[in-house]
Amino acid sequence: MYSAGDVRIENVPDPQIIESTDAVIRVTRACICGSDLWPYQKMEHSETGRVMGHEAIGVVEDVGADVRTVKRDDFVIMPFAFSDGTCVFCHDGLQTSCIHGGFFGTTEIAGAQAEAVRIPLADGTLYPLGAHADDALMPSLLTLSDVMGTGHHAAIIARVTPGKSVAVVGDGAVGLCGVIAAKRLGAEQIIILGRHADRIALAKDFGATNVVSERGDAAVERVRELTHGYGVHSVLECVGLEQAMNTAISIARPGGAVGRVGVPQEQTIPGSEPAFYNNVTVGGGPAPVRAYIEDLLPDVLEGNIDPGRVFDRTVGLDGVPDGYRAMNDREAIKVMVKP
Ligand SMILES: [Zn+2]
């Protein structure tokens, strides 16, 4: 990506092992993230461009001399953040705050909308799946690199437990995975706030019990009507814009919690006063998806959850620029890339 709206497919030097703890993987599936749409809308021109993409599954091509947990030909999940797996925050299960970590698809570390990626700290970062899995499972395994783990994080931070009422703000891939996560954690009522027919249909398939397509005050009113006037126990904020956060805080019941995973586009958190007077806990951030693979993988392998259904379009590398356009125009929910 060179600037807002300017995505090109170009030949670049092959990624190489630089540190002895690196690996290189050949990407078998990658995808375009809702968060990639922020730079797609706003990025300033860059002379060198930025190799985008932070979600992938693939096959290990090469490992540095000190890599122990993965080897050539292993099939692996690449979480969107790299991490050493050994520091205090990795031990706490918060790999996205790893002292030596960072994020793929940034100006420092090239991303995964590519044929191959260099993986720093391969031992802590890559999750080996052993044998090559069934082709039909690939889309769902790919979601464990970000969106499914991120939806799950929103649900955990929002304290979803059996019998709770939940609202999901945002009907993008993360919001839809948030619905899956809420259902999986035993929520009784799951209200999706969204307005795109295809996404709402999928949300219902995933377990949403109510749909609210209004916005602003009307949305708050509608959620109250659906919850005896109280609001919901748990809100999953999966957008990142001011209005979404305001809505999220306004529909939480007193003592409730908001789990925010939409990348914030403002410096301040709106809704401070209602959050204070209603004792609403607001938390969240980049999901430690590396930690969540352990929890979520068995349900993917057993077919209990099928988050791969969020992909409604598949492109080759040449189709990536149009994939961005399609997601930005809300023509596609989430675009999978098969290099
Ligand atoms: Zn660490």
Topology of this protein?
Elements: E1 23-31, H1 37-42, E2 56-63, E3 75-78, E4 81-82, H2 88-91, E5 102-103, E6 116-119, H3 122-125, E7 127-128, H4 138-143, H5 147-157, E8 165-169, H6 173-184, E9 189-193, H7 197-206, E10 210-212, H8 216-225, E11 232-237, H9 242-251, E12 252-260, H10 272-277, E13 281-284, H11 289-301, E14 313-315, H12 320-328, E15 335-337
Parallel strand pairs: 8-9, 8-11, 9-10, 11-12, 12-13, 14-15
Antiparallel strand pairs: 1-2, 1-6, 1-15, 2-3, 3-7, 4-5
The chain binds zinc ion.
State the main characteristics.
binds zinc ion; globular; 339 residues; 7-stranded mixed β-sheet; alpha/beta; 30% helix
Descriptive overview:
The two termini are 17 Å apart. The model has no long low-confidence stretch (mean pLDDT 96). This protein has helices at residues 37-42, 88-91, 122-125, 138-143, 147-157, 173-184, 197-206, 216-225, 242-251, 272-277, 289-301, 320-328; strands spanning 23-31, 56-63, 75-78, 81-82, 102-103, 116-119, 127-128, 165-169, 189-193, 210-212, 232-237, 252-260, 281-284, 313-315, 335-337. By secondary structure, the protein is an alpha/beta fold. The chain is globular and about 60 Å long. The longest helix has 13 residues, at 289-301. 30% of the residues lie in helices and 20% in strands. Strands 1, 2, 3, 6, 7, 14 and 15 form a seven-stranded mixed beta sheet that branches. A six-stranded parallel beta sheet has the order 10-9-8-11-12-13, sandwiched between helices. The structure holds zinc ion. The site of zinc ion has 10 residues, from helix 2.
What's the gist of this structure?
Helices cover 30% and strands 20% of the residues. It is globular, with a radius of gyration of 19 Å. The chain has 339 residues and is an alpha/beta fold.
